[in-house]
Design brief:
By secondary structure, the protein is an alpha/beta fold. The protein folds into two domains: 28-223 and 352-375, Aldolase class I (TIM Barrel, Alpha-Beta Barrel); 230-342, no CATH class. Helix content is 44%, strand content 11%. The protein has 16 helices and twelve strands.
């Protein structure tokens, strides 16, 4: 089990000992990642570019660059740009190990001494071993206890746990159930994701035993995200959490997103029409990523060998980045999809990353002080 989280009501708990004031918001995760606060910005496709990562990092958080949606001929320049914008402060890189340039990103992570990499399922022990040998923190995101245990078996040394409230690909178990399950079962630092947006959430995560929080939607809904105004307006107006819902129609896997015209169209479309859309997206994604027919064929063959039922899902996998690009880059929210956590319903205004992180820290310190007074009445 994890040690008692640093920063939450720490002090000498012996009977009769004088109560110590709450410690600063600094956990071992901060030392591991090299950031001031235990607040992580996740790698949202088409959103987590150099500007957002740099803004997060300068404000004291830890940002992940979304390498999965950055062109192969631009990714190294973007890594260098983050370095320049942050005076060489630590940051992270996210990528999928099935993407055509996965080896390139792996090499760049080692070359540029990236502090941490995030990923889903995919890398094997050999790949993770190479990263660990280079001093890189391996920090996958999981949505189930068994996936956390498997990730650690492969070599991960930090686990991000995302509950069902989170945006994008997500599971069905809420954070309040999944987080303590994983904390109790693993020996590595745990980061909590799914439903976090303020200081109260940070304190709650620490109380569960996590060493920090990770947020996507909260950082997407900032003035530093670079998301087009028309799309951000949709997020700000999303006041009904029930309409930030899960669908399997984008790529065959559960994804939480804002309800919109395109999602409603997919739900009404025939299976044949959805397949045509998926094939069109796959061809477009192939052209954008430089994926060769050989690589595409290898991915399909692997799906056939491992799980024939997943072939359709493999074809559909290109749907997500292409449809996200329409909203997050092109500013056409009614013609694409908008991944979102349920917290969008309680975020009523856009702030800078500095204001968001500052507000979370101030709110967390206030809650810690209130808890301290509650436990130590005059």
């Amino acid at each position: 089990m994890n040690a008692e989280p640093t920063g939450l009501l720490s002090g000498d708990a012996r009977a009769g000992a004088p109560a110590a004031p709450p410690a600063p918001l600094h956990t071992p995760l901060c030392d591991l990642l090299g950031c001031r606060y235990p607040i992580v910005q996740t790698a949202m496709g088409w959103v987590a570019g150099p500007q957002l990562v740099a803004a997060t990092t300068r404000a004291g958080g830890f940002g992940f660059l979304a390498g999965a949606t950055i062109a192969a001929d631009r990714i190294e320049a973007d890594i260098v740009k983050v370095r320049e914008l942050t005076d060489d402060r630590p940051f992270g890189l996210n990528f999928h190990f099935f993407q055509p340039n996965a080896q390139q990103l792996l090499d760049l992570a080692v070359k540029h001494r990236i502090r941490a990499v995030s990923y889903g399922r995919g890398p094997d022990k050999k790949v993770i071993g190479r990263l660990r040998e280079a001093g890189i923190v391996c920090m996958p995101t999981v949505g189930a206890l068994k996936h956390a245990q498997k990730a650690i078996e492969l070599g991960a040394n930090v686990i991000t746990v995302q509950g069902g409230e989170g945006g994008g690909h997500t599971g069905s178990v809420p954070t309040t159930v999944l987080l303590p399950q994983v904390v109790d079962a693993v020996q590595v630092p745990v980061v909590a994701a799914g439903g976090f947006y303020d200081g109260r959430g940070l304190v709650a995560a620490l109380a569960y035993g996590a060493q920090g929080i990770a947020m996507g939607t909260r950082f997407l809904m900032t003035t530093d995200s670079g998301v087009p105004a028309a799309t951000l307006e949709r997020y700000v107006k999303a006041r009904d959490a029930e309409k930030i819902r899960i669908s399997h129609l984008v790529d065959g896997m559960p994804q939480r997103m804002l309800d919109n015209e395109y999602l409603q169209m997919l739900e009404k479309a025939s299976g044949l029409k959805r397949l045509r859309i998926a094939i069109g997206s796959a061809l477009q994604w192939k052209a954008q990523t430089g994926m060769t027919l050989g690589h595409a064929g290898a991915v399909l063959l692997k799906a056939l060998r491992e799980d024939p039922a997943s072939v359709a899902q493999t074809v559909m996998a290109a749907n997500a980045p292409v449809l996200l690009e329409r909203s997050m880059v092109e500013g056409r929210p009614s013609e694409g999809v908008m991944s979102s956590g349920q917290v969008a319903a309680v975020i009523g205004q856009l702030q800078s990353c500095s204001e968001v992180i500052g507000g979370i820290v101030a709110g967390a310190e206030q809650r810690l002080q209130a808890l301290h007074r509650l436990g130590n009445p005059a």
